[in-house]
Amino acid sequence: MPGRSYNGAMANWLTFSVGLVALAMTASAQGTAPAIPPKAGVGGGPREVLIIRTAEEPKGADVHLSAAGKARAKALADWIPATFGKPDALFASRATNKSQRTTETLGPIAAVLGLKIQDGFVSEDYKKLAEKLLKGPEFAGKRILICWTKGNIAALATALGARKTPEWPDEQYDHVWRLRFGAGGVTLDDMVQKLPSGGK
Question: Does residue 120 carry a pLDDT above 60?
């Protein structure tokens, strides 16, 4: 009879649907349902960290930036936001009686953006800074700019998760390391600062 055939088909369809639902619930309960990848930098550290060294230093025992260093610091205040976007936080290794150039390098951009330079860590405490940035919920998904003494920059980048760091020659002031955080890990790009003439 046509009615019986239709009812039989409906019963089979319902049985199949119920089976699919039960299978999906079982897979979810067993943890086998496919996971949704997390968004880059969200809940697992910052989105991006930019690392620069101090700008040019004078010869001798002067603890401040040279004229060229001051020009670079001023130019970076415009170039960094225009190139990468506005940083959400600024960090510098703490000034010492041998050098105040880290905070001086970030001084102009701090003034332009109205941000405080956080300089609570000495250069050798790069691991503590890395831990603060990676675990602090206030930095999740943020863009961070760091000015650090050159001798510990590679160690800082490694502490932040970079697998390999390039060489940074003593006479090289015009680079920035861009660390980007994603589901696949940390990528490091070694970039040249393309500043207008005068900021070189």
Answer: yes
